[in-house]
DNA sequence: AACACCGCGATTGTACACAATGGAGGGTGG
DNA sequence: CCACCCTCCATTGTGTACAATCGCGGTGTT
């Protein structure tokens, strides 16, 4: 029952979630990755004590990681009732996408102006990694790397507040994609990423923005935001009932 | 040395910082207000233990409040070295203002579409409060209320991610204004706020956006971002070097 | 005299113990 | 038989003790 991975002293575990920093980051990254990989379904309760045993740290660390995840919108923190994996409603998803269009447009324009050759090279490398992940069939890693691409682009824009906001938006987008994306189609075609890099490298702002907006369109269109899919999305369909509101009769049986 | 205000059990102290919620919020609001009122100069060290004694709570609460302030960019959290009041550089200030232009434009457009009559009434009330504060000479409250106006506008836009981002931007803007604004000119003329509300109520999107952009221009122009002012801005000029200065008495009274 | 190294003090980082809250289940009354 | 209430338990919220870390000042050497 109480299997606990080794107290995660050093060991980067470089293969998986991002590079090791402080313990918080490790816990944060692991939970985040688990959510993206859909090993943690939306609505799943995240008990502090259980997580603490799993990662071999105290609740203090877990609490910080959860707080951070909550701030990025990936986890919902209910006072006195613990944390659950967020399950964005269709309306929330729309809001995130609207905000992303806005931010991505600005980021693209700024990146065209400020991206260095080194950054462009890094971006190309990331697209390669992303393609590899998808060809390996590692969908979770693919979604994560695709998000990291957009985050890297934000860094190239050289605007700290936008980077921070983009991080939050990308996190939520990843969760939404994991939750709503239909079937197994690659959600963020790396072709579009490559074209985008080309336009940025050519300092063609107008083209870059157009590509980015089309890219956003494609992401939108691949999601089933208009009507709920039926079978295994029960969690998503009902989660808004059985975790937050509805003080009276909160879905008696679940 | 150990002067400590009463353990802040309930007592809303409604006059000052925002309405009382949980203890975190009280501590957060008080520190935030102290920073805006410039009773806490940029660069001032925020010792957890000292704050804990002042507010009569344990370091746990203080730590959460500081973490939140850090996330909003008002406080700088240096690992193993404690927290200090942030002192945005000119470059950082420019980035914040760029991001704000972006966000305010979008918020204005959305508010024109979605603001309800009730929200518009609330906005007008807030402008009244703001004017009262300035006429009373309460500059800190004025800056804070002006920020809350822009935040309320974001709420009228009905987009959760934008609201969250705007909260962070407004906080940082307030700090920048407190730090850089020249003299005693009212920084956010409520006339402009009133005109803006009128345009929104008339559902005139183009006019509203133009007013907002001019409003941003005015805020920009009132700051001394181009060249440092000499006398009392030494803190700002050097704070990035000597973050630990001013060890004595962090705000004699709160 | 200046530089470098080492130990000390202060402050933050972490873990844990206790208090408080909310939900679930059983029991009782209508 | 159903509904309501009351108690108990699981889980989170808070305070505190202890450990780790960093900066600073003393001391010795070159």
Automatic annotation (TrEMBL), chains A, B:
Q: Which UniProt keywords apply?
A: DNA-binding, Transcription, Transcription regulation
Superkingdom of origin organism: Bacteria
Q: Where is the HTH gntR-type domain?
A: 21-88
UniProt signal peptide:
none
Q: Which GO terms describe its molecular function?
A: DNA binding; DNA-binding transcription factor activity
Annotated stretches, region: Disordered: 1-20
Which InterPro entries does UniProt cross-reference here?
A: GntR_C, TF_FadR/GntR_C, Tscrpt_reg_HTH_GntR, WH-like_DNA-bd_sf, WH_DNA-bd_sf
Any one Pfam family match given in the protein's UniProt record, by short name: GntR
Looking up PANTHER family in the UniProt record yields: HTH-TYPE TRANSCRIPTIONAL REPRESSOR NANR (PTHR43537:SF53), TRANSCRIPTIONAL REGULATOR, GNTR FAMILY (PTHR43537)
Tell me what this protein is called. Answer: GntR family transcriptional regulator
What is the protein's species of origin? Pseudomonas arsenicoxydans
